[in-house]
Amino acid sequence: MYGSQFIRTLMQLNRLFRLPFLSLLVFSVLSTACKKHDMDDMKHDSPLMKIMMDMMTQMDAQAKTQDPDHDFAAQMVLHHDAAIKMSEEELRAGSNQEMKTIAQDVITKQRAEITQFNTFLGSHQPMQPLVPQFNQIQKTNMDRMMAASNGRAMTMRTDVDYAQMMVDHHQAAIDNSEALLQHGRNATMRQMAQAIITDQRQEIAALQSWLSRNR
């Protein structure tokens, strides 16, 4: 008897609370979906993300020679060009002076390095033996960069979004430079790769320090 009464009570409670509970569940699911949709829209609307995506499109279309030194230089031209465009966007739309100073420094350094890369490419012929795995390493590093940036919450505050994405962007440059040190054979490219690693590790530390103080 007591068991039957207990079951009837549970059924009554279920009828009493089922509709509000279901409404709350539906609202929660819809709210989560809307927030994700809004975040996706912000990513697509972000000029910084568009620069990154355009860079990836250009890199995917870029001819590969399978000579690590040649392909490293060619891809770093595109990579640096995107960093310059992102930094120009920070100068245009950002408001924090510390971040603007970092952006101007990136522009100055990476324009000079693009000139060095183009000078190398103008006089260098791809050499044997070919190293096709280097291109796959480059691709893996760039895909990892985009996954990291896509996983970030875009704030639409240019200073914050620039700092976040430049951390990812610089890390990819470091990863590709380390791969060049492993597979490259040209002394000039090896020197440039080491310089990029040293310089951009310092810049990542500065960006992360700024983010810790300004999120």
TrEMBL record:
The record's Gene3D superfamilies line, in alphabetical order, gives:
1.20.1260.10
Q: Where is the DUF305 domain?
A: 35-121, 134-211
Domain of life, per UniProt, equals: Bacteria
Q: What is this protein called?
A: DUF305 domain-containing protein
Name its species: Hymenobacter koreensis
